[in-house]
Amino acid sequence: MGKRSFSLKTIYLAVLTVAFAVSCLAFALFDFHTQQEQTEAALLEEARTFAREMDAVWQFMDNSQTVINTTSDGIYEFKGLHCAVVGKSVGRLFSAGSDYVIRYTNFNPRSEQDVPDEFEAQALDAFYADSSVTERFGIAAFEGEDRFRYVQALEVDESCLECHGSPKGEVDITGFEKEGWEQGGVGGAISIVIPIDQQQQALRDNVVRDIAFFLLLTVVIGSIVYVATTLFVLRPLRVLRGAFGEVRAGRLGASLAEGCAAKEVDDLFGGFNDMAGELRGMYGHLESQVQERTVDLREANALLERQRDKLEQLNADLAQETQFKSDLLSMVNHELRTPLTSIITFAQISREACDPANEHDRRSWEEIEKNSQILLTMINDMLDIARSDAGTVHASREPMDLGDVVASVRSTMAPLAQKYAVAFRTSVASDVPLVFGDFEKTARMLENLASNAIKFTPDGGSVELRAAYDADSRTVTLSMADTGIGIAQEDQERIFERFVQVDSTSTRKYNGSGLGLALVREYADVQGFAVSVDSELGQGSTFTITVPEEAIVGEDDV
Predict the structure, then answer these.
(1) Residue-range domain boundaries for the chain
(2) 81-95: per-residue pLDDT in tens?
């Protein structure tokens, strides 16, 4: 299915709708929050006003006690009309005629009507715990309905101590036991309950009115923006799209009238007209170029035909040379190896049968045997290289015990080491695991390395073949270390190239073909092994074959 796309108009309307919806929601939330804060602030101010008025009544009655309780003759006569009685009476009278409730409360009231409810008890706890807290307010339940609750702490002054001071338990003039209050403490609180039905309804009405006005305003603005965008952007773009359709259909004479859209769209119209003019010029020029390129293509095709014929001839010549090379190698294999083997065998027999006193004849037979062996080794190496070039060298992947490989190499190389007075030692660590590889090619690699090590090690030197396992890197290494003449640093990479011999002195024990180490690397590569050398002139060399982790036989492979 193709990629779904939307028109610019659809995208514009969707973005405009989302923007209006988000802005309307944000405005509604902000307006509701603002109206709610204003309503709560008005209710709080109303409650504080009631509290101040009740406090004024309380203070008036306190200041008038001398007048109230003194007769015309100047005799003190307590009439029971003290500030607490008057304040509570005024609160009950006000509450009885409205939905408002004004009352006084305390934890140990003298009247059961003044026992605090949950909201008032929390306020009293806050007042007693922190003297700086003097009021508590908020929306809370009262008699099953949400009301605005306001509780203000009453501070104990000197006038309160006459009835509520010390000593605690003494009966005051009203007939109640004194509570032992101290001046400056909290003597209870005035509680004011204000209905919020009208305020909430007004809040909702205000929010609805504001949202309606905002919606009307946004619709008007959005309509104006949409009409302007349609006239100056969307409609010209549709015209531009039609002009592009004409060009796509090959009608390059299309042109757009400028000056009827926004500046940016007019710039697009001008750019389109320029592009159409250039296309018309290019199209005319292209036709002539096509004709020219057609002629060039015919000539190129003719040249390719000639080159193809030449390549076919070269392939035929190469096949002929390959066949000649194959025939030559077959001839070498059959016509040279057999006589050389016979010569080597005859030389060995003649050397062993030679009179011990006849040193000259014995050395002559040894020289014949040595040089014949060198020639046979060179022939074998050349045959192996030829097979590698032909792509016929493949390595088997079978589990093999490197201990057996090392033992085979030791058995093969021991006579050569004894002949040239070189100590040849081997060691295989007990933790060396089985590895996947080709037994014969691995043995051939080690034999070539051992042969090189022996021939470049002076009499009395040593060569050691070691097999070890590195648990940290999870690799197996086969190392051939000698005490020979060493290899210069600049020659250590070249020695693995074909026909490269870094030692051309006449003191070498016998010549070589320069193919032994090349075969070592190729046999290693075909098995997935790595070959490296570490050497220093005059200090000997160490060749290392590294078997990677993936070539180690695991428990699941057994």
Answers:
(1) 9-202, 338-386, 395-557
(2) 666 777 777 777 777
